[in-house]
């Protein structure tokens, strides 16, 4: 023993990790799907879950909002997707990118990969610049390409088909590795190899870059980021108590410029780091975590 005591893990971080795990299990509660190697097609599959979770995962009980949005755009020439668009706007206005930080299985996978030891890439101007790429992905692969092919009466969910690592990891691999699905393995071709390569590159990047997919490529995070300032739930800053020390931005692993901006996933690290009690997790005016008075005197004395 060296006499050192292990620093206790902050309660908010533990709570968030538990919610992430419970959410991933809840999204994928159809255990029979793994046993049978078949996708659940019951009535719950018509409902979108908030986070990125592949529809084709054998255990998935709900629909992926991103896949549903692409399908709605692809079918827009014949029928408008008001339900999907309305659902996404509702999720965004209620939770914003809290969903990314607390209720997205793909976010959990990325964070666990980042725990693998190795040299990590620090955030900076380059990563902040790359954070805009996901908005281009949203525009091109989720809206424009599916919309273009919708006019030609050809459904094409481009992001799911060509990029989405969750679709490959949860859906394609989950189905093809099952012993009952030899027919699917026989159909695998160039597109499957492309998607597998994309997935490997993205997951490998997540070992060295915190939430690399979430920060640079995820169009669902981009969509929720557009509504971040309007969201009811999230990390909020009390400007009267803030002294602009910058501790909140420095401790944040994401490419934020300010608490609660479009890149913030509301993980709560800033709440735990603020010595002035200026940051809390709120639902409207209701404080859920952190206290407006927490640490104020300590911070002032410092």
Radius of gyration: 21 Å
Total strands: 3
Instruction: List the total number of helices.
Output: 17
Please state how the strands of the largest beta sheet are arranged side by side: 1-2-3
Report what the structure shows.
With 302 residues, this protein is mainly alpha-helical. It folds into 2 domains: 11-226, no CATH class; 232-301, 2-Layer Sandwich (Alpha-Beta Plaits), CATH 3.30.70. The chain is built from 17 helices and 3 strands. It has a 3-stranded antiparallel β-sheet with strand order 1-2-3, with no helix packed on it. α4 packs across α14 (219-226) and α6 (105-114) crosses α12 (190-208). The model is unreliable at 1-9 and 293-302 (pLDDT under 50).
Question: What are the key terms here?
Answer:
302 residues, mainly alpha, 3 strands, 2 domains, Alpha-Beta Plaits, single chain, disordered C terminus, globular
Which helices and strands, and how do they pair?
Blueprint: H1 11-27, H2 31-36, H3 65-74, H4 82-94, H5 98-102, H6 105-114, H7 125-130, H8 133-151, H9 158-162, H10 165-176, H11 182-187, H12 190-208, H13 212-216, H14 219-226, E1 233-237, H15 247-251, H16 269-273, E2 279-283, E3 286-289, H17 296-301
Antiparallel strand pairs: 1-2, 2-3
Helix pairs in contact: 3-4, 3-8, 4-14, 6-12, 8-14, 10-12
Task: Summarize it.
This protein has helices spanning 11-27, 31-36, 65-74, 82-94, 98-102, 105-114, 125-130, 133-151, 158-162, 165-176, 182-187, 190-208, 212-216, 219-226, 247-251, 269-273, 296-301, and strands at residues 233-237, 279-283, 286-289. With 302 residues, it is mainly α.
């Amino acid at each position: 023993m060296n006499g050192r005591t292990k620093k206790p893990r902050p309660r908010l971080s533990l709570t968030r990790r538990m919610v992430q795990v419970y959410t991933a299990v809840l999204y994928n509660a159809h255990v029979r799907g793994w046993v049978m190697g078949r996708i659940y097609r019951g009535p719950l599959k018509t409902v979108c879950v908030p986070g990125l979770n592949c529809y084709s995962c054998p255990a998935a009980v709900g629909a992926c909002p991103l896949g549903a949005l692409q399908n709605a755009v692809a079918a827009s020439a014949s029928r408008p997707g008001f339900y999907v668009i309305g659902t996404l706007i509702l999720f965004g206005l209620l939770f914003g990118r809290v969903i990314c930080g607390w209720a997205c299985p793909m976010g959990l996978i990325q964070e666990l990969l980042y725990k693998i030891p190795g040299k990590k890439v620090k955030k900076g101007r380059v990563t902040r610049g790359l954070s805009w790429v996901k908005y281009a992905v949203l525009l091109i692969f989720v809206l424009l390409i599916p919309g273009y092919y919708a006019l030609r009466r050809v459904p094409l969910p481009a992001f799911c088909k060509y990029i989405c690592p969750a679709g490959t990891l949860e859906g394609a691999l989950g189905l093809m590795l099952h012993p009952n699905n030899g027919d699917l393995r026989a159909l695998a071709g160039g597109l499957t190899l492309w998607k597998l390569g994309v997935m490997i590159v993205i997951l490998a990047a997540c070992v060295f870059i915190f939430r690399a997919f979430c920060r640079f490529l995820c169009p669902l995070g981009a969509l929720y980021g557009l509504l971040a300032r309007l969201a009811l739930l999230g990390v909020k800053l009390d400007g009267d108590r803030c002294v602009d020390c910058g501790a909140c931005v420095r401790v944040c692993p994401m490419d934020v410029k300010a608490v609660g901006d479009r890149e913030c996933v509301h993980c709560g690290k800033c709440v735990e780091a603020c010595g002035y009690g200026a940051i809390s997790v709120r639902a409207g005016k209701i404080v859920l975590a952190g206290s407006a008075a927490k640490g104020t005197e300590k911070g002032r004395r410092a």
